[in-house]
Amino acid sequence: IEAAFEAAAVIPLRLCTLFADEDGARRMLAERHDALTAALGALAGREEWSVKLLVDRERIAEELREAGSDPAEAGTGAAYLLMRREERRLREAVDERAASLAEDVHARLQERAVDARVRPAQNRELSGHEGDMALNGAYLVERDQAAGLRELVAELGARHAPLGARIELGGPFPPFSFVPEAG
Question: How far apart are CA 73 and CA 78, in angstroms?
């Protein structure tokens, strides 16, 4: 697929698509000719890039903590309730800040992309990434705009690094996430 992608647009079939013989493959190509031709036109000269925004929740929490917000008299019931309320407020503020960072990164990358998709965050245990994934995006980019995308990702990464945010860029890939419905 990668070698074909270097030479021309690629339209992947569904995983485990099997044909009994070459005639079966030819029939499918003939039946879906118009849709496949349109898909090739839509994807020509474009590639997919993945962007993952990983955040360090503790680092964001440090930035958001208000001086003197810790309850004074630990051990009392009122102090415990105040402490729990502050923990909840801080968790919500961290969630909001992480979402805001993700929205900022996604919006800026969308400006450079022909199309974009936001996918569910990947499971940390399965993917092995460190931090919480605030954004798992795919971006369809004109091949000649890839250098600008890489520069933008580096700029955004530097801007958000003080909060413990890290941006991982992957690609280029054949534009699997952007194949138009072929019927």
Answer: 9
What is the rounded distance in angstroms from the CA atom of residue 176 to the CA atom of residue 162? Answer: 33
The bridge status of strand 132-142 relative to strand 166-173 is unpaired
Pull the structure tokens for residue 63: 């930035």
Per the DSSP assignment, residues forming a β-bridge with 137 are 51, 118
Residue tagged 């280029």 (tokens):
172
Query: Does residue 114 sit in helix, strand or coil?
Result: coil
Length of the chain: 183
Unique residue bearing structure tokens 């074909």:
4
pLDDT score at 116: 97
Amino acid at 54: L
Give the separation between CA 173 and CA 119, rounded to whole angstroms. 16
Judged against a pLDDT cut of 80, whether residue 112 lies above it is answered with: yes
Bridge partners of residue 37, in order along the sequence: none
